[in-house]
Design a protein that fits this description.
single chain, about 90 residues, mainly alpha
Length: about 90
């Protein structure tokens, strides 16, 4: 998105917020939705269905090719990740 497009979007957003600023129920709904969007942005684990299936397919392929790792008995997950370099 170009800076001009972003500026237009920003202006439209503030104008629309101004239009509902005197309506408490709408402002409450807006605040809840914005909070939801902020949480969504912070969650780095979110992915599309296609991304999830691609990761599963890659893992299955790696497994079939013998590219797997096993945790040693008594090894913590932190130690395991350090040992395999991930």
């Amino acid at each position: 998105m170009t800076s001009v497009q972003l500026n237009v979007l920003n202006t439209q957003l503030w104008q629309n917020i101004g239009a509902i600023a005197d309506n408490e129920p709408l402002m409450r709904r807006l605040a809840k939705y914005v909070e939801k969007l902020v949480k969504e942005k912070k969650d780095s684990t979110l992915m599309s269905q296609e991304e999830l299936y691609a990761k599963i397919a890659k893992a299955e392929k790696d497994f079939q090719e013998g590219q797997t790792y096993a945790m040693l008995p008594g090894e913590s997950f932190k130690e395991f990740r350090k040992r395999i370099g991930k």
